[in-house]
């Protein structure tokens, strides 16, 4: 039924504005052209502008982002053409009486929707809200003030619903990403080893848990401890995913018995098959520590050399002159394995370039570099720091020198061997006689 009040002219999309003003799209079948809506009240100087559509096809053309609310007549012919109260001659059931509304909800997912029906059709009006309308109105009770309030209420409720849904989706997505990224971080496999392990990881991406840096540590059945740290160029999720693939491939190949040049050549094949473009490469540092813990093999693939500290001596870099290229740069490349002596008590720190490429001051362009890192670590050793405390202090100091968060990913791995502690543990084994305590020395502690 038409509402007996003066017709308002339809307003073009170019004339509509957002803010206090609102635009209403009325969808109602009115073949005689007499359909009217109440003259809407102007509260606080705000206006409600009206567009009209006589069918769903016309509504689809008028339904733009400038429309804030849709008023749909539930008696409007649905997309199939038959009305809700009609029955086909073949005896089949009439179509869903809310088909028109459901069609509008599908084509207007971001708009507030009001349902218009007869006052004796309260049940269908309630069903309209249940399936997605923000509110309903009865034709016989419709006036300008009621319609104006209903429009504003529906618009605010729709905005609140959208905001709540986006917030919920964001939280769920963040929780899923956090669970995924935590699951992708490695768990060191060092059972039965005399070495202690510590690591710190700080991705460069904002609010990320995982970046393009990766590391891992495993102990093979012969007692050898293998450690690795690497860096995929770039900082996005694709680089993080590639880093995880390389870490898992390294662990599988190491447990299968590969080491040195053969392992790195196979990892390069994995990288070449999995990378998004030929410009992507990865640096890598691997060490394999003998079962007695006194010597190790070192391979460098375009990666900074590890830092070592022995009891009573200042920390310094391991030799790095004979390294090979980064993975993915040169086909059929080779990576020589260099033998290094570790000694009885030592600490070995492996790191990515995010630790050394931070600026020394926020205003300057000078980088910390490897020499600056060595001096920084030695200063912390003089303070008696070691293990987890040393890694935390190193990452924190690098960040402070940079004047804020680092733009690159940072990963630091620390392996330690304390010969005196190993001997004490051996003397405290069952049926062993306790020996004299070692006197405390004034020597520099390991990392």
Automatic annotation (TrEMBL):
Composition skew (Low complexity), residue ranges: 431-447
Name the record gives this protein: PP2C family protein-serine/threonine phosphatase
Transmembrane segments: none
EC code(s) of this entry: 3.1.3.16
Coiled coil (residue ranges): none
Residue stretches making up the Response regulatory domain: 23-154
GO molecular function: protein serine/threonine phosphatase activity
Classification via SMART domains: PP2C_SIG (SM00331), REC (SM00448)
Residue(s) carrying 4-aspartylphosphate: 73
Region (Disordered): 423-447
């Amino acid at each position: 039924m038409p509402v007996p009040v003066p017709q308002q002219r339809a307003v073009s999309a170019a004339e509509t504005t957002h803010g206090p003003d609102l635009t209403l799209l009325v969808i109602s079948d009115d073949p005689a052209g007499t359909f009217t809506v109440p003259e809407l009240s102007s509260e606080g100087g705000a206006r409600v502008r009206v567009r009209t559509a006589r069918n769903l096809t016309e509504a689809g053309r008028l339904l733009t982002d400038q429309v804030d609310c849709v008023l749909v007549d539930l008696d409007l012919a649905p997309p199939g053409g038959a009305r809700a109260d009609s029955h086909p001659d073949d005896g089949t059931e009439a179509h869903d009486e809310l088909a028109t509304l459901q069609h509008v909800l599908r084509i207007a997912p971001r708009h507030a929707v009001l349902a218009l029906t007869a006052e004796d059709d309260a049940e269908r009006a309630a069903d309209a809200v249940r399936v997605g309308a923000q509110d309903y109105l009865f034709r016989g009770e419709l006036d300008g003030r009621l319609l104006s309030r209903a429009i504003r209420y529906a618009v605010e409720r729709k905005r609140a619903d959208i905001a709540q849904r986006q917030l919920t989706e964001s939280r769920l997505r963040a929780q899923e990403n956090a669970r995924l990224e935590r699951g992708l971080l490695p768990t060191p496999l060092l059972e039965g080893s005399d070495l202690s392990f510590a690591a710190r990881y700080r991705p460069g991406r904002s609010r990320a848990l995982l970046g393009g840096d990766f590391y891992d540590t495993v102990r093979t059945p012969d007692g050898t401890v293998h450690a690795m740290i690497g860096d995929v160029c770039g900082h996005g999720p694709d680089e993080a995913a590639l880093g995880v693939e390389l870490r898992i491939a390294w662990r599988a190949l190491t447990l299968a018995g590969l080491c040195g040049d053969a392992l790195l050549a196979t990892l390069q094949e994995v990288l070449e098959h999995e990378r998004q473009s030929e410009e992507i490469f990865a640096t890598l540092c691997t060490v394999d520590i003998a079962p007695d813990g006194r010597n190790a093999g070192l391979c460098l693939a375009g990666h900074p050399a590890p830092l070592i500290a022995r009891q009573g001596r200042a920390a310094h870099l391991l030799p790095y002159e004979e390294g090979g290229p980064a993975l993915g740069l040169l086909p059929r490349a080779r990576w020589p394995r260099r033998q290094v002596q570790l000694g009885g008590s030592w600490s070995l720190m492996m790191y990515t370039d995010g630790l050394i490429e931070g600026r020394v001051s926020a205003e300057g362009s000078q980088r910390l570099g490897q020499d600056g890192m060595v001096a920084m670590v030695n200063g912390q050793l003089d303070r008696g720091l070691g293990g987890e405390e040393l890694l935390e202090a190193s990452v924190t100091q690098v960040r402070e020198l940079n004047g804020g968060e680092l733009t690159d990913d940072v990963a630091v791995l620390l392996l330690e061997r304390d010969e005196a502690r190993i001997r004490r543990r051996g003397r405290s084994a069952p049926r062993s006689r306790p020996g004299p305590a070692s006197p405390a020395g004034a020597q520099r502690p390991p990392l």
